[in-house]
Amino acid sequence: MISTGRTRRLVAQLLADSESYEGTIRADLRQLWREYLAPYKWRLTVALAVTIVWSGHAYGMALIARYLVDTVLLVQEGFSPDQLPERFAALRIYIFLLVGLWTVFGASNWTRSWLIISLGRKLVYVFRKRLHEKLQALHIAYFEQIETGKLMSRVLDDVQVIQRFATNQILNSMAYAFRILLGIAIVFVLNWRLALVVAVSLPIYAFVFSRIHPRVMESNRAVRRLNAEMYGVADERISGVAVVKAFSQEGQERRGFARLMDNFVRLSVQAVLYGAGQGTISGILTAFTTGIVILLGVLQVRAGTMTLGDMMVFVYALPNLFTQIEGLSEVVGQAQNVMVVLRRVFSLLDVNEEVIPGSIQLDGMVGKISFDRVTFTYPGQGTPALDGVSLDIAAGEKVALMGPSGSGKSTVFQLLSRFYNPQQGVVAAGGVSLAEADTRSIHRHIRLVQQEPTIFSGSIADNIAFGRMDSTPTEIMQAAKQAELHDFVMTLPAKYETEVGQQGISLSGGQRQRLALATALLTDPEVLLLDDTTSALDATTEQRIRVTLDHVLEGRTSLIITQRIATARSCDRILVFDNGRVVQHGSHDELLAEEGGFYRRIFDQQERM
Q: pTM higher than 0.70, yes or no?
């Protein structure tokens, strides 16, 4: 037995964060037309024309059925042998009309379907292409403020909603309206008295439908949301299955998922019941109105004021009229949700690109880096991550960045990669302000290797080649050797063609870091930014990579975020950050001599280990 109160609370909970429409309907529809539909206006015009022709299908069939009854069969007049030639002639006309109408309606339906499908595919292509290009152009802060799942929903699900609205729903709404008007006109021409009965019943039908249909839509939206939640939970738990097993929480996970499934079944049954209730009430109203019309029609046929064929038109027309009212009400009911989706997509496309690419190419640059009184605060933060930092790094110099967590080290890398622009000051490479440089050129000459590298699904070779897609197998292998990855790869059955899985799940933390390092080394950048890239390595491998890096980084400007004295000691200079400022700088020996400094404290801690 379904608990109505519990189910309603569940629906309210799932839809509690439903978005409201905060745009201007006219402006959003104008933008949709101007930027996306206007280039295909002739297709839309033809689609509308054939849709109107196709919309008359039911009434056309009803009218030729009237011709069959009243003219060909002469049901009310009875059979007479003298009329046989005339009836055969009328029958030929009926067959001609029947074949002709089916041909016209079939051709119009095929043309309409083809136009809608082709236009829909073009819209999906254009929307997704623009959204993808926009996501590629947006600064990295945007992705830190919004969930990836929501972005994927806009690119995939929302675009499909807009496509259905701009093609099917708009044309269908026009078809519904045309059929309603055409149907009412036909029945009024045939018999205005019976048409009054139909006219009175239509508002009643529309009122009942408008009261029930929102419940149906609400239940279906709740089911979709719960289904998405179940997918999310399943994906998260499967990805973290090792943690679940390590803490022996399999039973808890089974019970939690069982609750979700129970709620899903509960909501699904409610949605089915609401839909069945809507269909039942619609059927009762249609049957009741049709029964009254048939009763009155039979009386008029017997009185000779109406033909049997006319009454058949009414019998055909009534269900079709009610269906159009239902369809038009459904489109109107969905309009608010469509406008929310449309505004959501346009809002993403309208997001300001705070990091605008410059035009200067860095080809031929030398690796000199400078920060001139740079101040930067992350969006939504009150305390500057860098506060008036000035520093100069000579070409070919190897510099270690040290300091407590949150001191500003990674922010230096974020600004050098031009993921952000500083609010004050100038960040320059090779004597060129990065604000004036082309971002693609920046990323060709300044490479960042992150502490937690992103590994794409595919082979090891594919991931290394991501740094330069035209690289040869020999170059890929050489980069892997430089990153101390080659020996491990050669132990694998498929060698460089071994699939690493999503996020490199089949690799250890150290192997992922070496893979990311190989990707960067393949591109031979002038400036290399290493964000604690040896943190997940064992001491032996770290020592091998350090020796290799000493050779690879020779003559190359490099900045290394590290907390390890052994790595810092091998650098030409060490910068110590604290609270967004450089508080110490110098060589290993110089900083070691500063009693009470951060560097000396770290040195003493690691010496005691």
A: no
